[in-house]
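Course exercise 7: structure representation. Students receive a sequence record and must write out the corresponding structure in token form. The form below is the worked example handed out in class, using Translocating chain-associated membrane protein 1-like 1 (209 residues). Read each field label carefully; the graders check that inputs and outputs are placed in the correct fields and that the protein name is recorded exactly as given.

STUDENT ID: A-19
EXERCISE PROTEIN: Translocating chain-associated membrane protein 1-like 1
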Amino acid sequence: MPELYFQKVKKEDMFSRVKYSVLYLTFVSAIYITNFHRIGVVLLLLHYICGFIKHAVKLIDITEKEEDSKKVQLAQNVYNWFFYAVQALTFILSQTMLWFGLKNVQYSGELRDFNTPTFKLICSISALATQAWMVYEFLNNQNSNGFNLSASFGLIKQKTKSTRTDVSNKKRKNAATRKFNELTEADQNIKKTLKHEAKKAAKIAKSVK
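STUDENT ANSWER:
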């Protein structure tokens, strides 16, 4: 895909990108074929806003010079809350539309009229399965990046530096390294440049003192 080439996506990350692209293409095609345009546009809008926030968090993480920045943690917490809110809204809207919204619409028997109990059941199961898979992938990604579920929601306070053990520090370093490796080459170069400039500024400040 041209998009993957111009973004300089790594080979190991291509499958994940293609997987989500195919999922979106399948969803949009299903909306067009079944004439469920209105609910489809609303659900797509919600997921695109969620994706926008995700990329905004990544941008903040890339441009932030400190490893454990409060700004990055706050942005990550906002994204976590918004992701689950979008999943809840998707579930409520899709199931309400299928089983209550279309209940009063009479089946016409035309070629592209899919307002039948069997098809609605298939759509309902497909929507639930897709949401379950997305939440599973999200939790896997959070765990691989070293996030605790309660801490990521801001429900528990993180330990102070004096009480952190060597094991927790090692986990955080591994998580930071993994996050850095997941970035594209261009983003990695930006991150390296910002860190180098921060170190230079710190040295200059020390020499002035």
